[in-house]
């Protein structure tokens, strides 16, 4: 039996290649200091370029900016602790005293860790702040001020390079997308939800769990699309479409249609309803992709189908009412 080979999503593969390239491009920082002095600090630049590089522009900006803030915080405490210890020690800086003083500060910085749920985690990376402070404090090699500056600068350089490179790619629209853009995703989700509603319309609440799972996905998509809508007019269209589909779902709370309703109204209109449903779903899914020629939209027969269905529905309702007056069918109250 041949086993299926493991596969790697293209987006993850591109991200891995991108982070590797960023690390290579930032390797110059290792050779910046003369005779390799401080290279054990500047090596953090390519390492952090790899860590903070993302092909998603929002993730990249978030990681890069928080890393820079964390590096500044670490640099501040490094220099502060070094000044205090050097001033209080008549001989020279003592790394043992530095570690002892830095230890409680590490606990304060840990409040910015994402695992704590603190809002500080959205401001700076606590791991960067602690590393930028602890490395030069614990391993100063007699030069805590210089090594503190080199360590913080390495984090900043790695983050800045990733920030700049990703911004350039984004400016030229060269970043691959992990997810479908919000507006096309909304069109597709609307088509799926409309198709589900019309398929289970007559069943009432029998399939409520499945329908509501679809509704949850649709609601997430229309909210995301409304945030991304470039104009108020388009946002208004999204709101109207969403409210229409949600209202359609709410009508199912009244339960199943009666046998008389199905026989005298629903079944006679089924061909028109199916045609209408197919046309609506087709155009919703078509608009999820770029349309090269606006005239393609004019070819739709939606308005004619809607007018014809409305006319036949009115006629079927009149016929149903006449039969109900003659006592042939049971009258169903409708809202």
TrEMBL record:
Top-level taxonomic group: Eukaryota
PROSITE patterns, alphabetized: PROKAR_LIPOPROTEIN
Residue spans crossing the bilayer: 12-32, 38-57, 69-90, 96-115
Keyword tags: Membrane, Transmembrane, Transmembrane helix
Name this protein carries in UniProt: Aluminum-activated malate transporter 1
Highest classification ranks of the organism: Eukaryota, Sar, Alveolata, Perkinsozoa, Perkinsea
């Amino acid at each position: 039996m041949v086993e299926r080979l493991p596969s790697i999503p293209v987006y993850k593969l591109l991200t891995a290649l991108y982070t590797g390239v960023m690390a290579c491009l930032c390797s110059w920082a290792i050779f910046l200091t003369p005779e390799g002095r401080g290279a054990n600090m500047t090596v953090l630049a390519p390492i952090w370029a790899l860590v903070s590089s993302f092909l998603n522009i929002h993730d990249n900006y978030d990681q890069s900016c928080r890393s820079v803030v964390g590096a500044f915080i670490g640099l501040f405490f490094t220099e502060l602790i070094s000044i205090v210890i050097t001033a209080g020690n008549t001989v020279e800086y003592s790394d043992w005293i530095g570690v002892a003083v830095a230890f409680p500060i590490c606990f304060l910085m840990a409040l910015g860790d994402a695992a704590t749920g603190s809002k500080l985690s959205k401001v700076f990376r606590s791991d960067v702040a602690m590393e930028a402070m602890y490395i030069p404090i614990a391993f100063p090699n007699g030069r805590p001020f210089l090594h503190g500056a080199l360590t913080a600068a390495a984090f900043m350089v790695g983050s800045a390079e990733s920030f700049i490179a990703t911004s350039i790619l984004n400016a030229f629209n060269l970043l691959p997308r992990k997810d479908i853009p919000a507006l096309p995703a909304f069109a597709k989700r609307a088509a799926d939800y409309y198709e589900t509603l019309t398929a289970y319309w007559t069943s009432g609440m029998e399939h409520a769990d499945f329908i509501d799972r679809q509704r949850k996905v649709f609601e997430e998509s229309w909210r995301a699309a409304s945030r991304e809508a470039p104009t108020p007019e388009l946002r208004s269209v999204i709101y109207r479409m969403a409210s229409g589909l949600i209202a359609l779902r709410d009508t199912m709370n009244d339960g199943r249609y009666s046998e008389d309703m199905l026989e005298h109204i629903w079944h006679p209109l089924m061909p028109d309803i199916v045609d209408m449903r197919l046309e609506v779903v087709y155009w919703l899914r078509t608009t999820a992709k770029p349309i090269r020629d606006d005239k393609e939209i004019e070819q739709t027969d939606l308005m004619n189908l809607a007018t014809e269905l409305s006319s036949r529905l009115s006629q079927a309702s009149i016929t149903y009412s006449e039969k109900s007056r003659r006592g042939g069918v049971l009258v169903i109250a409708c809202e």
